[in-house]
Amino acid sequence: METEAADQRAEPADDVTLDDVVSLCKRRGFIFQSSEIYGGLGSTYDYGHYGVLLKNNVKDEWWRAMIGERDDIVALDSAILQHPRTWEASGHLEGFTDPLIDCRACKMRFRADKLEDSSCGRKPSKRPGDTEACDLTDARQFNLMFETHMGAVRDDASAVYLRPETAQGIFVNFKNVLQFARRKPPFGIAQVGKSFRNEITPQNFIFRTREFEQMEMEFFVAPDEAERWFDYWLGERRRWYDELGIRPDHLRLRAHPTDELSHYSTATSDIEYLFPIGWSELEGIANRGDFDLRQHSEFSGEKLEYFDQQSGERYVPHVIEPAAGADRATLAFLVDAYDAEEVEGRQRTVLRLHPRLAPVKVAVLPLVSKEGMPERARALYEQLRRRLRAEYDEGGSIGKRYRRQDEIGTPWGVTVDGQTADDDTVTLRDRDSLEQVRVPIDGLADELVARLEAPWRSPKLEAG
Ligand code: GAP
To answer: How far is the CA of 354 from the centre of ligand 1 (A)?
Structure first.
């Protein structure tokens, strides 16, 4: 389980700041502060049109890697509310806590282990008359689970929790999957969904929030094969980020030292990304051993094990868990893609996203709004959108429309001009090289679909 102490391992990031990304997200409608018209709700965010498309693409790529390209993993969508005993068995009720300190003067709350980083923590003593100083309580353990109540009666017996991780929904369904999907180890169960943590100091835009989406997979293996599968999943998950174009020098693996391991883990490594706040966890890969299945077996009274009727072999599988955050991955892809440059004396901001992650793949633009160009462009747009996400835009100068598409990361722009009526050709503009080539409309959709599947490298690597 992630700890905030792991955030921000200081090291200079490159020149993209979090503010650059936050303001682009707002300007282009990717991500907004939640409940903005009421002044906002702390560290909760709403995704607008392009943000939804981008995050969906991140999740789609994860599903593609988990079940589209292999046949040993099945999908699951478990409920957010689970039986409260789940959280006793998992250890969350007792141990999913952070040390919390309150300030009686300013009424703010801090993590005791992060006090140095907070403005309040710099003035711990309260001198008479010093209204600036803080007056800190002793540290106490604060459970990060959100508690709510089920049904009309609000008492201890009705208490339930919003899940703090998607993983436990997988473990409590182990028996169902074993029976109904007829699986035997090695096999995995994958789930994407919301998790909730009442973080004391949520921060850094969508990096750490109280409501977020996880992409988790539990891979069940024979006990003596756990180490081998742990190494395998480290490699696979690193490859996923590499193939989606994250710059290799902005990614690294970090093995947890023993004193940092969660109670359930015998080995954990993080894939870290060099965010503008420094090296920070993007995804954790843990060897959870047989901790979870044994705990749920004990608390539920159900046998959670693998039994081979033919060979008589019986064991409690061990679990390898790659656990990623969809929002945090989205932030990493945004940061890695953000670029600003000067083109012909003008500033251009561009999101150099992998084409498969880009919210819109192709923009269809009439050069001007006359001479039949809008009609021809609209017809081409309707043809292309059957095969890939497309956008039609006829408002404003062509230069402004290109800039808008650059800012939302659209890899290709197709412009219908006067020549189109004569020979059924259009110009195809590349977001990164800015090259424009004349191509026939016939075969254009096939060409773009093929480009989407081609290997891709961040153009920022060429430039840097
Ligand atoms: N089942 C193991 C588990 O939940 P974790 O390291 O606590 O492990 C996995 O969470 C991933 O979920 C993290 O690597 C991160 O990407 C994401 N995550 C965790 N807490 C988050 C938060 N408060 N806000 C956004 N993403 C978070």
So the answer is: 24
